[in-house]
Amino acid sequence: MQKLSRIVTLSIALTLISGCSYFGVYKRDLAQGNLVTPAMADQLHPGMTRQQVIDLMGSPLLEAPFNASQWDYVYRLDEAYGGIEQRRLTLTFNGNRLASVEHHGDFSRPPALISERGIGPSGDNEENRGNLLNVSPSEKE
Predict the structure, then answer these.
(1) Would the keyword Signal be found if you checked this record's keyword annotation (predicted)?
(2) Which of 53, 67, 72, 113 could bridge to 62 as Cys pair (CB 3.0-4.6 Å)?
(3) pLDDT tens-digit readout, 23-71
């Protein structure tokens, strides 16, 4: 009986310290779509050509299949231990020129994954110095 209790105790201890933990799983933020910052959205203005919009914003995530004059830039951030942030920018073209811009969501601040220093790690070590993704636009000039 004493041997059986030792085996059960050892089995429980090994289960608790193994990878199949009772305490939970690791989660991470999941960003999907086009990353559109407030600065990018502010630079859009009626009269721009499609190529100028692509140069500024990149290719759209969605082009309406039955209406070639509408592009959608969609961004969704599913925070691991928080809520969901969604943004959508709908651009309507008249021929080859941008006619209107519609904002859906909060474009008053950058998405949560972008720190004040830029996209990527926020550490101030030697590896991150000189990396263009970690430099704000004012530091590039």
Answers:
(1) yes
(2) 72
(3) 667 778 888 888 888 888 889 999 999 999 999 999 888 777 888 889 9
Task: Answer whether residue 12 is part of any domain.
Answer: no
96-124 pLDDT tens trace: 999 999 988 887 777 766 555 555 545 44
In the Cβ-directed half-sphere of 6, how many Cα atoms lie within 13 Å? 3
Q: Looking at residue 24, what is its pLDDT?
A: 66
Distance CA 122, CA 127 (A): 11
CB 85 within 8 A of CB 76: yes
Q: How many domains does the chain have?
A: 1
- DSSP three-state, residue 69: coil
Tell me, yes or no, whether 66 lies in a domain. yes
Task: Specify the pTM.
Answer: 0.60
Residue 103 makes CB contacts below 8 A (sequence gap 6+) with 41, 87, 88, 89
